[in-house]
Amino acid sequence: MFNFFKKKPKDDGTKIAAAVDGQLMPITDVKDDVFSTKMLGDGYAIKPASDDVYAPVSGKISTLFPTKHAVGITTDQGLEVLVHLGLDTVELKGEPFEAAIQEGQTVNQGDKIITMNRALIADKGYDDSVIVVYTNMDLLNSVSAVAAKTVAHGDEIQTIEYK
């Protein structure tokens, strides 16, 4: 009748998707101390096997860097998710990146956001790892660990729980 004694369903957390096809790795394995020490926040990284990068979460494009090497997505819950394309690729001044989105646009998890020219990044001597970081960790209770494995974009690879 009033369901006073009915248990609330357990919150299984928010599922985070793989942003790109490739080899998943813990963020602590990224060859850059800013990411590997979780200075910017927790998350994951993927050594990509394709050039197309997809939204790991649904939300609003809050930042598209002029060099297109990084995209910020803010979820409805206010979580800021940074999708960073490669290490030190800001120095390439946007050359290997083509944005499929623009600032202010709403995206769904799995929508294509960027195409990156991995061959050009490698030719210029840069690491093309795609790093996904939750930058305002104060909103989260937990972030599940990830284990190295091959993934396809859209695969559920991590779970976060909001406070």
TrEMBL record:
<dbReference type="GO" id="GO:0009401">
    <property type="term" value="P:phosphoenolpyruvate-dependent sugar phosphotransferase system"/>
</dbReference>
<feature type="domain" description="PTS EIIA type-1">
    <location>
        <begin position="32"/>
        <end position="136"/>
    </location>
</feature>
<keyword id="KW-0762">Sugar transport</keyword>
<dbReference type="GO" id="GO:0005886">
    <property type="term" value="C:plasma membrane"/>
</dbReference>
<protein>
    <submittedName>
        <fullName>Glucose specific PTS system IIA component</fullName>
    </submittedName>
</protein>
<keyword id="KW-0598">Phosphotransferase system</keyword>
<dbReference type="InterPro" id="IPR011055">
    <property type="entry name" value="Dup_hybrid_motif"/>
</dbReference>
<keyword id="KW-0808">Transferase</keyword>
<dbReference type="Pfam" id="PF00358">
    <property type="entry name" value="PTS_EIIA_1"/>
</dbReference>
<dbReference type="GO" id="GO:0016301">
    <property type="term" value="F:kinase activity"/>
</dbReference>
<dbReference type="InterPro" id="IPR001127">
    <property type="entry name" value="PTS_EIIA_1_perm"/>
</dbReference>
<dbReference type="InterPro" id="IPR050890">
    <property type="entry name" value="PTS_EIIA_component"/>
</dbReference>
<keyword id="KW-0418">Kinase</keyword>
<dbReference type="GO" id="GO:0005737">
    <property type="term" value="C:cytoplasm"/>
</dbReference>
<keyword id="KW-0813">Transport</keyword>
